[in-house]
Amino acid sequence: MDAELVALASTAASTAVTLLVTDGWEKVTTGLASLWRRVHPDRPEVIEGELLEARTALLDAERTGDTTISEDMVAEWRNRLRRLVDADAEATADLRRLLATVLEPALAETGRREPSITMTAVVSDHGRVYQAGRDQHLSKEE
Questions:
Q1: Cα–Cα distance between 92 and 90 in angstroms, integer?
Q2: From the CA atom positions of the chain, what is the Rg in Å?
Q3: What b/e readout covers 3-30, taking b as 16+ CB neighbours within 10 angstroms?
Q4: Alpha-carbon span 66 to 86, nearest angstrom
Q5: Distance separating alpha carbons of residues 134 and 119, to the nearest angstrom
Q6: How do residues 31-86 score in pLDDT, each as one tens digit?
Q7: How far apart, in whole angstroms, are the C-alpha atoms of residue 120 and residue 93?
Q8: Helix axes 25-39, 44-64, angle to 10 degrees
Q9: Fewer beta carbons within 10 angstroms: which end of the chain, N or C?
Q10: Could you give the CA distance from residue 119 to residue 7 in angstroms, rounded to a whole number?
Q11: What's the domain of life for this entry (predicted)?
Q12: Secondary structure of the chain in the HEC alphabet?
């Protein structure tokens, strides 16, 4: 899988898990279930149930201050989304559309931010890439 699809799956998973503990959780559940329905018509109800279980676990973890559950959930859903887009090339466009039209707007409505930053770069030959999650200062050495 190329780096762009890995980044897409990572961003979608992180956004979805963040939304599961907000009022936007139903949008996540409906959106991801519809994505699975197209690729695996027999799985949407199972996915909805698993997302509800994930929500319950995340809410419990939030109450106890356990941050590892959230990280584990992001990794789990990232892997599931990667397998889904691997299984069906058209699912990639559907996942991009879901992220842009449902997940990101729902996240913006909550005022929350994603728990992590995902950056991807591809460099060839003697190219350079400079990435930063925040401020970056470069100076040319003589």
A1: 5
A2: 17
A3: eebbebbbbbbbbbbbbbbbebbbbbbe
A4: 32
A5: 12
A6: 999 999 888 888 889 999 999 999 999 999 999 988 889 999 999 999 999 999 98
A7: 18
A8: 150
A9: C
A10: 7
A11: Bacteria
A12: CCHHHHHHHHHHHHHHHHHCCCCCHHHHHHHHHHHHHHHCCCCHHHHHHHHHHHHHHHHHHHHHCCCHHHHHHHHHHHHHHHHHHHHCCHHHHHHHHHHHHHHHHHHHHHCCCCCCCCCCCCCCCCCCCCCCCCCCCCCCCC
Tell me which amino acid residue 94 is.
D
Could you identify the residue written with the tokens 């698993």? Answer: 50
Tell me the one-letter amino acid at 10.
S
Q: Which residue in the block uniquely carries the two structure tokens 């090339």?
A: 89
What whole-number distance in Å separates Cα of residue 52 and Cα of residue 50? 5
